[in-house]
Amino acid sequence: MKKTYPVRIVVDSSTCLRPDEARELGVTVVPMRIVVDGRSYRDLIDISPTEFYRSLRETKAQHTTSAPTPGDYLEAFQAVPGDVLCLTVASSISSMYQAATSAAAMALGRRVEVIDSGTAAGGLRLLAEDAARAARGGSLLEEVAQRVRELSRRTQVLGVLGSLEHIARSGRIPQLASWGTSVLRVMPLGRLTGGRLGLVKLVRGWRAAIQALEAEITHGATEQGAGARGEGLRCTVFHADALEVAQQLTERLRETVPEAELELSEFTPAMGVHTGPGLLGAAFFVDDR
Fold it and tell me: Dihedral through CA 132, CA 117, CA 237, CA 140, nearest 10?
């Protein structure tokens, strides 16, 4: 008989969790949708990252995404037993928190709490993993929610974009910024923490990008109280069709912070629509418990 736990964790597919990883953790994933030339695909179900990035690189097809609707979230909430804790992407960059909150108000026969994580991608992955472990350990809804809120305040997401072309196409930044970056051959290193996006620095080339990410992670971990060998640090390196550089960063971190809990994950296609291929990122927090 399949064991059930007091709390079920629900996230969307931008969380950088593969379907098999989510099943192992007991996490319910609500898929975003990817539309390629008018044809809709469920993220990570109907289209794989490899298929998606090949399409993005090799075709002129139009690629767009849509977030889960309140109905999608409600279906997920009603399909699981017990209480539900739903973690969403930062409301400052996505409408998913509002959709999940609307669904929670309609859910019957269970308690549903929705938390704006203030993070995204690998950061949301780390929080979902921690919440799922707490739930499997028997923690109640209030306890898991409180721990997520504490950890979300420490969670940092760092990312380097190999190109601003796809973000420029979406209208999120001026086209001039994309042109300037291409000509100068520099890449922006950004940070998302507490729902706020900011530019850390510009780097030139992947070698410099890897070094800058390593420095930001180790410095941030020290500030949060990690041990000299990375004790207490939880970190996931993620990438969008940039496995080689992601592996290089992971190996450097294994040498620098050998006692840290390190993972390597893949950026979901639904997020890759906006960044394009060639993104390298990392998310981390220090668990002082």
Answer: -10
Closest CA relative to residue 271, chosen from 262, 283, 260, 263: 283
Concatenating the DSSP letter of every residue in 90-142 gives -TTT-SHHHHHHHHHHH--SS-EEEEE-S--HHHHHHHHHHHHHHHHTT--HH
- pTM above 0.85? yes
pLDDT tens for each residue of 174-189: 443 554 455 556 888 9
CA distance 25 to 9: 9
List of domains in the chain = 7-32+67-152 (3.40.50.10440), 156-286 (3.30.1180.10)
**pLDDT tens digits, one per residue of 246-281:** 999 999 999 999 999 999 999 888 888 888 888 999
Q: Is 195 helix (H, G, I), strand (E, B) or coil?
A: coil
Token pair listed for 28: 């319910």
CA end-to-end span of the chain = 33
Percent of the chain beyond pLDDT 70? 90
Closest by Cα among 137, 141, 154 to 114: 141
So what's the pLDDT on residue 182? 55
